[in-house]
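Our collaborator T.R. sent over the components below with a one-line note: 'Predict the complex.' Nothing else. No constraints on interfaces, no templates requested, no preferences about which chain binds where. So this is a plain run: every listed entity goes in together, and whatever single assembly comes back becomes the starting point for the next discussion.
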Amino acid sequence: MALDRDHVLRSAAALLTRKSTATMDEVAKAAGISRATLHRHFAGRDALVRALEALGIAECEAALEAARLDEGPAAEAVRRLVRAIEPAAGLLAFLYTENQLFEGDGQNQGWTRIDDRLTALFRRGQESGEFRIDLTPAWLTEALYGLLASGAWAVAEGRVAANDFTYMIVELLLGGARRTDTPRRKES
Amino acid sequence: MALDRDHVLRSAAALLTRKSTATMDEVAKAAGISRATLHRHFAGRDALVRALEALGIAECEAALEAARLDEGPAAEAVRRLVRAIEPAAGLLAFLYTENQLFEGDGQNQGWTRIDDRLTALFRRGQESGEFRIDLTPAWLTEALYGLLASGAWAVAEGRVAANDFTYMIVELLLGGARRTDTPRRKES
DNA sequence: CCGCATTGAGACATCAGTGTCTCATTCGGG
DNA sequence: CCCGAATGAGACACTGATGTCTCAATGCGG
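Returned assembly:
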């Protein structure tokens, strides 16, 4: 039952990542169950989306833990973070755009906690002198979300190779497009 | 009439930018006309969205023209471009996410043209030695879209000051978060 | 083998949004 | 001033999705 629920949740995530307007029928079919059973797990579409949000938050926090944001150079922590969060990027992209709809009304405070930890990471990088100080931590956090979503879509549509996902995002976020005097090492 | 249509289109853009699921009623009300009149201008919701897409494409191409992408350093061209496209960023964000739904089926070829010109700009920067070559032009183009959308939302929700929009996007896209040995000039 | 629980299939009512229509009103140019 | 075009208000039918319900079939443990 609990396992079932998790399986349903994950296939729903996979489907809605691709087609964010998918029907309850489609979600049920994707999970290999009937619509009736789907309704037995999740009271309705809202409940499903909220469960997906909880899943996304949980995966984010797991990635935050796995990346050990406090250890070592902030840049390396960012790289570990993106690598850890990559499998959830599609779900994140879905939730990121979905959240643009719930304008104003109380957003899940789980996101706030995650935002805080990301912001703290970027601030740590600034205070250690690794990161420039003219880009606010809030903006860097927002940009990270945006790049994760763009990356997930670009990969989904074949415009970027799946293998390059982490590298492309991390390098752009940290190093930007401009070529610097001291070339950076290419690390896959 | 033609003026009317344009006014309707622009208020629809402004509304849908904020609430992408707004009803035809709401769109009509936002434009200060009745739903009947709205239907006289646009056959249906699809037609409205397609018209908005055309508007977005037109504004993008106008910005591409205004930015004179072929002139001067590619980095400066990017800066001019973002500055020129800033007013349309909200509409772009709407269309960008909207397009994730039209999965596969023929997307407007206007976007292809715009993509090509952006890609060409980044490639020019690479060939002139300004930009690094390990980030593909296709990814830089995608990332630009993502950052424009993130920026528009961040500004809309007050997480980033509207004045910083262009600077934040351009600096992150070109320079990244990492601090370089030779500090860059801050240009507002 | 039996009984209980879960499931799938489908019927059903409901609801929101849409698209079409009518009709009275308003507005502007001739 | 008057006529025609455009508009607003609203009624209407239709569609698609949703949520609820029933019932038969399946399956599993005792």
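Summary for T.R.: Residues 45-67 of chain A form the longest helix (23 residues).
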